[in-house]
């Protein structure tokens, strides 16, 4: 006799998958031409590689040809400030998600020697504040985007003058252009080594994922 467990739509995993599926059902829009909109939520970025192919990302370009917008390069979230979470009136007024996506577009545009902004699209979904972290976590777990799993630093902000900043992120090492990152000490890991990590990841090597993502 089969011992099957009853399906519970209200478990955290199933709720997270429901949010992720709602995101992926939305139309993909060009990252360079997003409208301004209100709200906070989650998003997924996609790379097509048509304008300026980057060799290490060729598996993403191939995946896009076979199944458009099926394999994100990055997944993220934009939340309301801590004091305002749960306030629906603020959710309707603030542009947190749109602002975050515009920041990403600016980062990619600044890295014009290796990337082209027209190669990037996104899905976004406005989500009630309490479910945003769960939706992001499940989506990363389901899709394992390379800029989340292997290449740290894409979502970083300018640390500002006088603040501890560490070394230059991996993302800025292989995609130079953000002026604030050029003030940071060069990391020991070269572009070639990071590219090799990316290629090994796409080949199925799980040893190259970032420590903070190993349990995702």
Characterization of this structure:
With 216 residues, the chain is of the alpha+beta class. It contains 8 helices and 4 strands. A 4-stranded antiparallel β-sheet has the order 1-4-2-3, sandwiched between helices. The protein is globular and about 55 Å long. The mean pLDDT is 89.
The H-and-E topology, N to C, reads as HEEHEHHEHHHH
Q: For the report, how would you describe the main beta sheet?
A: 4 strands, antiparallel
Q: Could you estimate the helical fraction of the residues in percent?
A: 25-40%
What gap, in angstroms, lies between the N and C termini?
Answer: 33 Å
As a percent range, the share of strand residues is: 5-15%
Give the strand line-up of the largest sheet.
Answer: 1-4-2-3
Number of E strands: 4
Overall pLDDT metric: 89
Number of discrete helical segments: 8
Features:
alpha+beta; single chain; 4-stranded antiparallel sheet; 10% strand; 34% helix; 216 residues
Task: Give a quick summary of the entry.
The protein is 34% helix and 10% strand.
How does the SSE layout of this entry go?
Elements: H1 12-24, E1 29-30, E2 41-47, H2 58-66, E3 74-78, H3 88-91, H4 96-110, E4 120-126, H5 132-143, H6 146-149, H7 170-174, H8 191-202
Antiparallel strand pairs: 1-4, 2-3, 2-4
Helix pairs in contact: 1-5
């Amino acid at each position: 006799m089969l011992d099957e467990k009853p399906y519970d739509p209200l478990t955290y995993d199933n709720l997270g998958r429901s949010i992720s599926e709602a995101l992926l059902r939305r139309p993909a829009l060009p990252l360079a031409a997003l409208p301004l909109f209100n709200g906070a939520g989650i998003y997924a970025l996609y790379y097509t590689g048509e304008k300026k192919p980057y060799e290490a990302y060729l598996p993403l370009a191939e995946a896009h040809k076979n199944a458009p917008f099926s394999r994100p390069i990055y997944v993220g979230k934009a939340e309301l400030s801590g004091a305002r979470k749960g306030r629906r009136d603020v959710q309707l007024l603030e542009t947190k998600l749109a602002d975050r996506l515009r920041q990403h577009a600016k980062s990619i545009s600044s890295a014009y020697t290796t990337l082209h902004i027209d190669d990037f699209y996104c899905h976004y979904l406005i989500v009630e504040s309490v479910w945003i972290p769960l939706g992001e976590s499940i989506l990363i777990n389901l899709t394992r985007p390379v800029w989340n799993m292997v290449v740290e630093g894409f979502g970083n902000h300018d640390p500002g003058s006088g603040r501890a900043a560490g070394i230059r992120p991996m993302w800025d090492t292989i995609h130079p252009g953000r002026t604030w990152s050029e003030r940071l000490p060069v990391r020991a890991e070269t572009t070639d080594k990071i590219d090799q990590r990316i290629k090994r990841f796409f080949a199925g090597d799980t040893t190259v994922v970032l420590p903070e993502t190993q349990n995702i």
